[in-house]
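Box 4.2: Ligand-aware structure prediction
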Amino acid sequence: MTNRRSFLTGAGAGITALGASLVSRAGAASLPEAPTHTSSATAAPLHPTGGRPYNPVVTLNGWTLPWRMKDGVKEFHLVAEPVVREFAPGMQVNLWGYNGQSPGPTIEVVEGDRVRIFVTNKLPEHTSVHWHGQLLPCGMDGVTGLTQPGIQPGKTFVYEFVARHAGTFMYHPHADEMQQMAMGMMGFWVTHPKDPRQHAVARDYCMLLSSYDIEPGSYTPRTNTMLDFNLWTINSRVFPGLDPMVARLGDKVRIRVGNLTMTNHPIHLHGHRFEVAGTDGGWVPKSARWPEVTTDVAVGQMRAIEFVADAPGDWAFHCHKSHHTMNAMGHDVPTLIGVDHRGVAEKINKLVPGYMVMGDKGGSMGDMKMPLPANTLPMMSGDGPFGNLEMGGMFTVLKVREGQKRGDYSDPGWYRHPAGTVAREWTGDGAGALPPAARAPDARPAPAPAGQAMEARKPGAKDMTGHEHH
Ligand SMILES: [Cu+2]
């Protein structure tokens, strides 16, 4: 749902347009409205109603900022402000963002457009906006102290430049960055090619990766955290709160990914091969591309991957760091695989009613029903057609369907697999005899836990580690 709200009812009379001497005064005279968006659903692509034509992008669980044309200049209005973002149903987070959301709305322009962006600060401290990857006059680069003074609370600045080259960019503060980016201040920017046939794809998704440290049971990120984040998000959403990406069979698809966390993310797509077609520096020449199924997006980088959605199904798309496909967890929990807890739980239960022994057969908690603190998501969750997905964080699904209509982004539901194409339990029927499972030549049984006598078991019997003893 997009609400249009007059800027003038917001920040009040303290509006100034510093920097106006650098740009035309016409834009500063009347501010464009600053639309806000309160839903975390994926908005439909915003087709241009004026200016040069382009093929709009889809921001996963996000939206594109409407603009107005004024004397041949595209005018946008960003409002930096505190927002509440739903990470997934059951968890609301106090963040800072733009126009009602974190990340802020995606800005879409065309190569060669003159762009004027008004930035109003409704935060309790100064801010600025850096236009990451743009080739622009130095004074428009948005670095507080270096290229401009900070935008003080209640003030509005104006930035103006020509979007000189097509590609994939982002915007974020360059003022008290550690706090402001840890609070979710960032947004996507796409500059489309002058000729809409150039680099044309049927579906063009974009997403920013960000991370947060939110103590289970609390609502606001700890912004001084340097490494130990516990929520890994795509557009400030976590699985199962992320919408699927949808494609019609045979569609050429682009997924643009920007990384504003403090670590790298190897982004992995199942069932397809893709090429990195663009970076935040521009398009990669065709002769310099190679096939991939995983590409690392380093800190501060952007990657645009392209592929033909030629395989029907529900395909996982995720960061390949397994801790990044989980929701908030305690990282100081010991590994308990193989530890024999028999009898321990009963003893502890006499002292601490409700105590649970965790992880002695592995870490799977997908089916555990544990009481969670308020406003906290399960670590591993997501209901799929075959049970619990045991995922969280930076995970979603690419749904490729033959029957999906052009321009239809609605969720087609779970994939109906053709008969005989799903992995199944071997019961001896039809699939032939079970071949022997070769073992490494020097395989030895796993050591017994300390203080516990090794028990002799028949071949095939499993111990607590799930390993077979012979
Ligand atoms: Cu990751």
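In the box above, the bound molecule is copper (II) ion. Residues 1-27, 455-470 have pLDDT under 50 and may be disordered.
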